[in-house]
Design brief:
Helix content is 33%, strand content 20%. It has 511 residues and is α+β, with helices and mostly antiparallel strands. The protein starts with 11 loop residues before the first strand and ends in a 7-residue tail after the last helix. The structure holds flavin-adenine dinucleotide. Flavin-adenine dinucleotide binds at residues 16-22, 41-43, 46-49, 51-55, 168, 190-191, 221-223, 225, 227, 249, 286, 317, 319, 336-338, 344, 347, 349-351, 353.
Length: 511
Amino acid sequence: MTEFRARSQLGRVVVVGGGTAGWMTALMAHRFLPEAAITVVEDPEVGVIGVGEGTTPHFVQRFLDVVGIPVSLLVQEAGATIKNCFRHTDWNGDGASYHHPFEDHVTPRVDIASVHPDAPWHDGEFSFASRACDRERVIFERRPDVDPTLDAILNLHAHGSFALHFDAVRLAELLGRVATSRGVAHVRGRVGTFERDAAGNVVELRLDDGRALATDFVFDCSGLARLVVGKLHGTRWHDASPWLPCDRALPFFLPTEAPLPVYSESRAMRNGWLWTIPVQGRLGCGYVFDSRMTSAEACLRELQERLGPTVAPVRTIDFSPGWFDRPWVHNCVAIGLSSGFLEPLEATSIWFAVVALNELFRRQLALGDERARADFNAWFGLLMQRGLDFVHLHYLGRRRDTPFWSTFRDRTRRPDGVAQALAPDGWRNWAGDDAGAAGNPLPFPWTSWRAVAGGTGNLDRSAVSRYWHYYGLHPGWPERREAEQARIDAVVARCLDHGTCLRLLGAPPGR
Ligand SMILES: Cc1cc2nc3c(=O)[nH]c(=O)nc-3n(C[C@H](O)[C@H](O)[C@H](O)COP(=O)(O)OP(=O)(O)OC[C@H]3O[C@@H](n4cnc5c(N)ncnc54)[C@H](O)[C@@H]3O)c2cc1C
């Protein structure tokens, strides 16, 4: 008896969970398994987590574009806004900010600010996305040459990659509407137990109300409940808490500011950090902290001192940083929070769900193939480890004002990947164009490391210079300085402000 069915025999696919991960999975499965009957089952009593509102360009390029959902639909129906980059504030205790921008076509290939020994470590002087953020511009300009009946986003010319912010609850509803309109079945009910065959494959899911769903393959998108790969199969958990200190979040909302920022902000706080994500009509915020170092009450007091007495968290979310060693077990794959979670910094979670789906479907779900499963699990472990390394780097700034910051280096372990990256020849890890295995690049190219290492005061400029020289590129400082800035600013000046861009994409008035 073969343990798995071949892809062509995949008649029934069940997705457990109707959050962002569940509906993304259903839409990707519908796109790549056209013969399969796909069912999403979700427990309305549990609901979706309701955080996770900041993304990376992968969400647009590897999910929306792949399943054929226009960006403008999210602007119209899920409160979406445009994101140029991450802004990290006060991680050195001096109130200053630095940007971690997405890739663009305007920034000079050689970061002259970082390479020259007399230049400041990183001031965004030569980053197009940073300069656009400072002037509240998106990275689009209007294209007069395009047929106006085409989707609105095609009428805009993008100077690089962009991401979105959105209302997570409205996004799940929207993706659910799109998926069901394409034929995905939607069952509301609580999955209670599972029937397995002799090989360990799940063949039936039983709901608490007595209904049963027969299946050939299960996507576990049950969020922090981690029903299938975690609880049912008891897969080994890779604990990341020795490297990442935060384990609790207090989410809350604030009224929107005008103009609407074109970045997600992380602001270092006394015992962790605060995210601020602008969506239409409100800011989604949350204090992420280490519950061993402080209490929710103390965090709330700090928030109220900074933002005013009306700040009121909507709930407390506990999480443990880590991931499952084998997110794909028998005929079940975990996607989203059910596969693991580092922490919210750098929006790795939706990003990793998107690239995991691409990795799975790129492999054509060769479900009879033990090797495909082992390769996927190994790839996923590498992905999470690269994420952990990069997130850890953010905490290595110069802030020392509380025990959380002053003891960080003693309380946590330094990941090998960080030590290697910051070593004088660490850039060599990225030479060769940052490609990961088989064309699905692992996250965080050298430019990302350079931005955060620079922003936290950990950048070895001689290494940067050697990296560029490896590519045969030379900074040409200072002759190019003014010319480069003028060139970048000329492009920024042609770009739209955020409000105009959202209106062109069909944002409802008054948002
Ligand atoms: C504090 C915090 C901040 C975050 N910020 C970001 C961010 O800015 N960017 C980012 O990319 N990610 C972020 N994330 C992660 C992000 O929230 C998730 O990746 C994303 O929302 C996907 O969630 P999910 O679909 O896996 O889980 P959920 O949204 O929790 O969905 C789980 C689903 O499973 C269903 N379910 C559970 N049990 C059962 C059952 N027994 N039977 C049937 N159905 C069941 C629920 O009803 C629900 O539909 C954050 C996470 C946290 C905790």
